[in-house]
UniProtKB/TrEMBL annotation:
Biased composition annotated in UniProt, kind: Polar residues: 38-51
Listed InterPro entries: EF-hand-dom_pair, EF_Hand_1_Ca_BS, EF_hand_dom, EFCB6
Signal peptide range in chain numbering: none
Keywords: Calcium, Metal-binding
Top-rank taxon: Eukaryota
NADP is among the record's keywords: no
Keyword field contains Calcium: yes
Protein name (Swiss-Prot/TrEMBL): EFCB6 protein
Molecular function per GO: calcium ion binding
Source organism (scientific name): Odontophorus gujanensis
Underlying gene: Efcab6
Positions of the EF-hand domain: 188-218
GO annotation, cellular component aspect: nucleoplasm
């Protein structure tokens, strides 16, 4: 009996931890500690996203900087990119792109070049999609956010445009006529409006091409097709001239 009493007391003491572990008073403490850990990890997540938001803003700053520096030489840069693009896929190795940027002295720091190469290495294959680069820095096909105090140069359409495919042929056409458009876009806008008697913001293809010819912008049949493929996706034979001009002027 004396030997059985200690063994009887031992299970009592040994069962207490197991019962305490399964009892409710200590269990909520474990849950609360886990919840606290989740909250701290969740609260730390916005900090990680905040660290990624500045590069997006820097891209806009860098592209605006490039846009000012690249006006005189972008056609030569594009031509050199096309020569380096042996496979004609619209992309060249990052090293080749960096060499071109250095050759034309675009005054970009190493950090800025890292930002650019990270953004335009779209396939993450070590190559720069240079047509996308020129689209962002020269053409303004994506809608820009206007501040409240900024004067609207070209009104936005009531209906948002549903653009067609952005092909390399389309980019080439738009980039070719970009200098001429910038030179005469204000009187061209007035001429577009004079043809648009119903004030719909749309012109048929013949009138649209005629206005361009009046300003000595002659499009080949292929180039006209490239523009129509983008601006007349629904094959309505109508083009929004404001959308067209907005690609060059923002």
């Amino acid at each position: 009996m004396s030997s059985s009493t200690p063994s009887a007391t031992r299970p009592a003491t040994s069962t207490r931890p197991s019962t305490c572990a399964s009892s409710q008073p200590r269990h909520p403490k474990k849950l609360s500690s886990l919840v606290g850990k989740k909250n701290t990890s969740a609260s730390s997540r916005p900090q990680t996203t905040a660290t990624y938001s500045p590069p997006v803003l820097k891209w806009e700053v860098i592209e605006n900087k490039i846009r000012k520096n690249i006006q005189r030489s972008w056609r030569d840069i594009l031509k050199l990119c096309q020569e380096k693009d042996v496979s004609k896929l619209g992309e060249i190795p990052v090293s080749e792109f960096l060499g071109i940027v250095e050759k034309f002295r675009l005054d970009l720091s190493k950090e800025e070049m890292t930002q650019i190469t990270t953004k335009y290495d779209i396939k993450e294959n070590g190559k720069i999609a240079y047509y996308d680069f020129f689209q962002s820095c020269i053409l303004l096909l994506k809608p820009q956010k206007n501040s409240v105090l900024q004067r609207v140069v070209i009104p936005k359409p009531q209906k948002p445009m549903s653009p067609g495919p952005q092909t390399t042929s389309f980019y080439s056409t738009m980039l070719r006529i970009q200098p001429q458009i910038l030179h005469c876009w204000r009187p061209m806008k007035r001429t577009f409006k004079s043809y648009d008697e119903s004030r719909t913001g749309l012109l048929n293809v013949a009138d649209f091409r005629q206005v361009l010819r009046e300003y000595k912008i002659n499009l080949s049949e292929e180039e006209l097709f490239n523009i129509l493929e983008y601006y007349d996706k629904t094959l309505s034979s109508k083009i929004s001239y404001n959308d067209f001009l907005r690609a060059f002027v923002q």
